[in-house]
Amino acid sequence: AQSVAQPEDQVNVAEGNPLTVKCTYSVSGNPYLFWYVQYPNRGLQFLLKYITGDNLVKGSYGFEAEFNKSQTSFHLKKPSALVSDSALYFCAVIQLSRRVSNFGNEKLTFGTGTRLTIIP
Amino acid sequence: NAGVTQTPKFQVLKTGQSMTLQCAQDMNHEYMSWYRQDPGMGLRLIHYSVGAGITDQGEVPNGYNVSRSTTEDFPLRLLSAAPSQTSVYFCASSYGLAGGPIYFGPGTRLTVT
To answer: A45, A101 in Cβ contact below 8 A?
Structure first.
């Protein structure tokens, strides 16, 4: 079964400093990996995804993530944090089915979320 | 486009009552799903649909029913509400799950007393 772990419930970073939100995954095949952000009282918004190719993926709002297959990690990063980056961040993984005709085998599994607080 | 819309935004039910959470999307997405969000547990998949007339169970389907009579609508029915179903419910849709991204609605906050 596929799973995602976000080891930190809370991350605090000073404004202007680089930030990292950690994510590790477990799948038996090739993963599709995603990061989503949730602002207060809102639904989740897509930030970026890794499907294949370059291990460094760039996304919205200046965020990027690095896929590391040997460490099964997909950490979210940003070079310089903004106060407006404060939100709840979710990592997610899909394990693709070999039965490509069975669309329903591709189910998205979310981590438990990391609350990022940027301190002015 | 309105995107993914959900109604109501808030609801309070008594144990044993039934209700339907509405979800609609105007992006012609094939894939729609329902998640519940609970503190410390992230989002868990309740039910999903890969097209009109096709639904399947997710991780936590007990106590919930769904149907998909049209591409646009995917209602979630609580058959007999229980306090354990107190949660925030999100509907989501996408063209195809593997391709991403998934678009989420604003959520319904449900309290069962």
So the answer is: no
Tens of pLDDT, residues B59-94: 899 999 999 999 999 999 999 999 999 999 999 998
User: What single-letter amino acid sits at B6?
Assistant: Q
Quick check: A11 and A114 in contact, CB under 8 A? yes
Mean of per-residue pLDDT scores for chain B: 92
Residue A22 pLDDT class (50, 70, 90 cuts): very high
Kindly report the backbone phi and psi dihedral angles of residue A25, in degrees, each rounded to the nearest multiple of 5, phi listed first.
-135, 165
B5 residue type, one letter: T
Confidence of residue B39 (pLDDT cuts 50, 70, 90): confident
Cβ–Cβ under 8 Å, residues B12 and B109: no
CA distances from B28 to A1, A29, B25, B55, B72 (A): 30, 30, 7, 17, 7
Contacts of B52 (CB under 8 A, 6+ apart): B68, B69, B70, B71
Of residues B62, B7, B59, the one with CA closest to residue B35: B59
Nearest neighbour of A111 by CB, restricted to B42, B92, B97: B42
Strands A114-119 and A56-58: unpaired
Q: Does A40 contact B at CB distance below 8 Å? A: no
CB < 8 Å to A3, chain B: none
